[in-house]
Design goal:
two-stranded antiparallel sheet, glutamate dehydrogenase (NAD+) activity, 6 strands, two-stranded parallel sheet, GDH_C, NAD-specific glutamate dehydrogenase, L-aspartate:2-oxoglutarate aminotransferase activity, mainly alpha
């Protein structure tokens, strides 16, 4: 327990012997009755308030005590605007009403919801194990289960932070998700304390850069997971042999050898695998990732999940997620969040690539085997071709305390996004390193790398501007692929001269086409025109 912390029980009275606690409770008498102690503690100016008991102790200032539906605690309940703790953790159920959580969060408090700060992993494991043998095995791996439960909660909290950081930008998308969940999943806005259309419009027009509050995003995250689980359960995805490893990784390491041979035949295999996948997907790429893909491609969520899983395993992204997550306080929170955004953007580009260039359903195992081997050869080639950009980003990240190797891998994600195209162009008929060199030489020579940087810098203050940026990036990658393919088909080995020459070639590139200067008022509009003036999408 931290210095100054004192555990309290619900006895008749307490003795506060530590000066810190006496000061926190504003100098109350030495013996304080239990109800007054609770009332004072709920309003204490502390760093963290942790509720681990049963009862609803905080309501919104707009609510009455009967609306909190917990008459036993009416005498000690406080309003959300009276809570002065910087962070609230809900280990018990409904310590705050949902409206109180939202009010507290909008006022600057940090909290999730009770269902985010808990986990159902232990319950699932008890179901997984036969009742006759579960007590002994579970007791033997209780520390492993506890670690997994804490990891579940941390991952959920992490993705909430990433989504919250861009909540104003995603307000339109979140509003669309609410409508979609209403239509498809019978979401009740009133019951879930989510904004109605009038309130959404008011928050959008507030001019304060407000999106959904963190507890509201938590509700959407829960519905997104449930929706993902239902769609996956109704699809053949859980029956994919490639995903057998996902099921085994859900089991504590101490039980894997014992349960491994029987997991494939377990009667709850599909249900547990569906839960594992929906948690993994939502915890890594957020609430709206697959709805955006469906919106931009028209492909079903299960097919998009297959594409995402192929990208995840080709590039070993789970290891990268874990490395960034393990930084904890080693770098500023905003830097970690931006690295998570980099990974999400990379996932989106890679998933879109498969949805545009492969007919669904994507063969996960086949694509992973085909691409992973060749992309390992490219990892040192692509960043070297765009060394200046990679080195600049690497230096920026290391300056914030990110380890050099990890900083370099995150910085290389931009150039590495082209690797799927490079491998596809090579098509086992050309040296993949040579194709990468030609691709990069054309990229730099024609100023495509510069154009990509300008697209990244475009404002994305609404859902539609974000979709426009996605469309622009996708069109740019398509043009790069076409140019490289045409150059190789027409000039063959002579492209090596282009790839290795450092001579300046007088070619008019995108930088020469735009009359407004970068950063000027007209530049963003000029680049944005490309999203409607550019060529059509490549056929699948």
């Amino acid at each position: 327990m931290a210095a100054g912390g004192v555990p309290l029980s619900v006895e008749a009275g307490f003795t506060f012997s530590r000066p810190y606690v006496e000061a926190t409770l504003a100098g109350r008498p030495e013996f304080v009755r239990a109800l007054l102690a609770y009332f004072a503690l709920l309003r204490a100016p502390v760093d963290v308030l942790c509720n681990g008991g049963v009862g609803t102790f905080v309501k919104a200032s707009s609510q009455t005590h009967p609306e909190a539906a917990d008459p036993a605690n009416d005498a000690i309940r406080v309003d959300a605007d009276q809570v002065r703790a910087r962070v609230v953790v809900e280990g018990g159920d409904l310590g705050f009403t949902q409206r109180a959580r939202v009010e507290y969060a909008l006022a600057g408090g940090r909290m999730n919801t009770d269902f985010i700060d808990t986990s159902d992993r232990e319950v699932n494991l008890k179901i997984l194990l036969d009742a006759a043998i579960r007590d002994g095995p579970l007791a033997a791996v209780q520390d492993e289960v506890a670690t997994a439960v804490l990891t579940d909660s941390r991952l959920q909290s992490r993705v909430l932070g990433v989504v919250e950081s861009d909540a104003p930008v995603f307000l339109d998308q979140h509003a669309q998700s609410i409508r979609s969940f209403e239509q498809r999943d019978n979401l009740d806005r009133e019951l879930e304390c989510l904004l109605d259309e009038e309130a959404l419009a008011a928050r959008r027009k507030a001019g304060l850069g407000l999106g959904l509050a963190r507890p509201e995003i938590a509700v959407l995250l829960a519905h997104a997971k449930n929706s993902l689980a239902r769609e996956l359960s109704d699809s053949p995805v859980p029956d994919e042999p490639y995903l057998a490893g996902e099921l085994l990784r859900y089991v504590p390491p101490g039980l894997r050898q014992r349960l491994g041979p029987t997991m494939a035949r377990h009667p709850l295999r599909r249900q547990i695998l569906t839960t594992v996948l929906s948690n993994d997907l939502a915890d890594h790429v957020g609430t709206g990732f697959f709805s955006r893909l469906e919106e931009t491609t028209g492909v079903s969520t299960p097919d998009a999940v297959r594409a995402y899983l192929a990208v995840r395993d080709i590039f070993g992204l789970n290891a990268l997620w874990s490395e960034v997550d393990s930084l904890a306080t080693a770098c500023p929170p905003g830097v970690r969040t931006e690295m998570f955004h980099d990974l999400q953007r990379f996932c989106q580009l890679g998933t879109l690539w498969f949805l545009r260039n492969r007919r669904p359903p994507v063969d996960i195992a086949g694509e992973v085997e085909h691409f992973r081997r060749q992309i390992r050869q490219l990892a040192p080639v692509l960043p070297a071709a765009l060394a200046e950009m990679v080195q600049r980003r690497t230096a920026e990240l290391t300056g914030y305390g990110v380890p050099g190797v990890l900083a370099g891998r995150i910085a290389a994600l931009g150039p590495l996004a082209a690797s799927l195209d490079v491998v596809e162009i090579a098509a086992d008929r050309r040296d993949v390193g040579f194709v990468a060199a030609v691709y990069s030489a054309l990229d730099v020579g024609l100023g495509m790398d510069w154009l990509q940087e300008q697209i990244v810098e475009l404002p994305s203050e609404s859902h539609w501007e974000l979709l426009a940026k996605i469309s622009l990036r996708e069109d740019l990658f398509a043009q790069r692929r076409r140019l490289t393919g045409v150059a190789l088909a027409r000039y063959g080995w002579r492209c090596r001269i282009c790839a290795t020459s450092r001579r300046s070639v007088p070619i008019r590139g995108p930088r020469d086409v735009f009359s407004p200067e970068p950063g000027s008022a007209g530049f963003g509009a000029a680049v944005a025109l490309m999203s409607v003036a550019g060529p059509g999408r490549p056929a699948r």
